[in-house]
Amino acid sequence: MRCEPASKRWMEKSALISLDMDAAAKEAEEANVDLPLGGVPVAIKDIINVMGQPCTCGSKILHGYRATYDATVIRKLRAAGAIPFGKTNLDEFAMGSSTENSAMKLTRNPWDLTRVPGGSSGGSAAAVAADAAFGALGSDTGGSIRQPAALSGVVGFKPTYGRVSRFGLVAFASSLDQIGPLTKTVRDSALIMNAIAGHDPQDSTSLNEPVPDYAAKLGNDLRGVTVGLAEGIHDRRDRPAGESRD
Amino acid sequence: MEYVARLARINLTEEEANAFQKQLDDVLKYVEKLRQADVSRVEAAAHALPIFNVFREDAASEWFTAEQALSNAPRKANDLFIVPKVVE
Questions:
Q1: Is A139 a catalytic residue?
Q2: Residue A215 has what DSSP assignment?
Q3: How many CB pairs under 8 A join A and B?
Q4: Cα separation of A46 and A43, whole Å?
Q5: Which of A27, A105, A148, B74 sits most deeply, having the most CB atoms within 10 A of its CB?
Q6: What is the distance of C-alpha A128 from the center of its chain?
Q7: Model's pTM, two decimal places?
Q8: A97 a catalytic residue
Q9: What is the DSSP letter of A163?
Q10: What are the tens digits of pLDDT across the range A59-69?
Q11: Cβ count within 10 A of residue A146
């Protein structure tokens, strides 16, 4: 079935909690378009600190708070030329899978406004699906990038734990949280990964290994590639949903 | 339940206390289920990555100014946060 997502302007209101267009316009004027993400607008899940912008985590508890520093991923996005122009809706403190558990607003699925966009990075997924942002950052503890990406028809990528610094991300479960991109295409996710991946002394669980050029690795023949499944996790995949909860 | 509520400094009605008591029992029973899993042949995994004892040099560096650190404080004085008394 072919369909068109809801209008960009409508989704801006629905998917974003706050916008800093004045700062974004100023940054855009001065943007160096020779950089890998020069002048590219990226929306940020409202659980990642962007200096001077609110960081509500979808909760009333943080009403009035303004971040006093940039998360490492924001510093790296800026260094690659990107413009973090606004903060996207989420389930409160990322605890949810539909973005219905936000104290701020309800975000709809841009492809069908009677449905949820998934969560907890639902605002990021919806903003990208509706073209309100080139790409977005989300965070994933137990599916919070991958699931809303699937429900909203965009690409979502949870990097291997340790690959992307968690410094400046409000923690949900520190030994599982990772920040990752939500974009229209795999190539766009690779470009954002090129910008945000890498070791960071500010995150003691950050992996000190060389970062590959993700974009350069695209387009290869996938024949002969082996996909691994951890049996302990996947050997009961046929169990009906909900059974484990009695 | 009363003790937990007192520690969390929340007032519960008798009705709420009964409801939460049951929920707490359910959670504890559910956690008890974990004991049934046979993990005798599973290697303990404390962390996904082999990273141990990350230290930095004990040296002063540029970081927040007191003004920045206190910019969100509801109450402050003499470059310090003022918070409600919580110890009894």
A1: no
A2: G
A3: 28
A4: 9
A5: A148
A6: 10
A7: 0.86
A8: no
A9: S
A10: 999 999 999 99
A11: 20
